[in-house]
């Protein structure tokens, strides 16, 4: 039981790191630009397809990852200029409708370009295999690499936002963007930087997960709901909140899915416990969100209204 707990805890942390990469961009876009972007999950999907394509062309996962980054920047800049920029002054309902339409267009475009069959990305040889944790427990090296990479990105974001000029502008924009604009800052340029940063982070999450999941259309929708839960729990506009919220949501979701049926066997027969556990496990994340919002309506690190 302890081995299973440690294994699922690590899986939860790994999922949490990926959720953070997606949620960090989403919370900045919502908190600074006041744009509800339902197409953020599309960027996660596009990143996975980019790395799959470039890795196949070059024969190297690492080159695929490197080439994915400028492609992600280009996608972010194009989307911001063509679509998102026209939504800044529109209502949230208009933003939801426009970005939902963008999701449908992106999914169909992916089917046209890459087809409907899932793609696979081979694990880089240096990160294949597993390492011993507790006898006889072993854990995949690549999943550990995802955790390390995510923590490195989180540390880089923390330093950038709290100790650089661009970070100062981002924090000021999240607090009072009208004042930032009045002080002579090009708010349009700032918004383009924010959206592109969010796009790159989401694409990076998709690229990192590609070797351990199948790359297919619609993979962004499944993770988008959890990402919005992370943003709400952490507080809109807060990177620190996005990180803590992502870890909480992922660990609760992962442990609940595994240990829920096991705990229910104490009061139910095994078949009923398994069925009830599978039904109740997805609810745990939303129960967690409701409890946190009851205690802190703005989220863990959200500013007061």
Automatic annotation (TrEMBL):
The chain crosses the membrane at residues 12-31, 38-56, 62-84, 96-121, 141-161, 190-213, 219-236, 243-264, 276-295. The lineage of its organism: Bacteria, Pseudomonadati, Pseudomonadota, Alphaproteobacteria, Rhodobacterales. It comes from Citreimonas salinaria. Pfam families: BPD_transp_2. One of its GO terms (cellular component) is plasma membrane. Belongs to the binding-protein-dependent transport system permease family. LivHM subfamily. Keywords: Amino-acid transport, Cell membrane, Membrane, Transmembrane, Transmembrane helix, Transport. InterPro entries: ABC_transp_permease (IPR001851), BCAA_transport_permease (IPR052157). This is Amino acid/amide ABC transporter membrane protein 1, HAAT family. PANTHER family: ABC TRANSPORTER ATP-BINDING PROTEIN (PTHR11795:SF442), BRANCHED-CHAIN AMINO ACID TRANSPORT SYSTEM PERMEASE PROTEIN LIVH (PTHR11795).
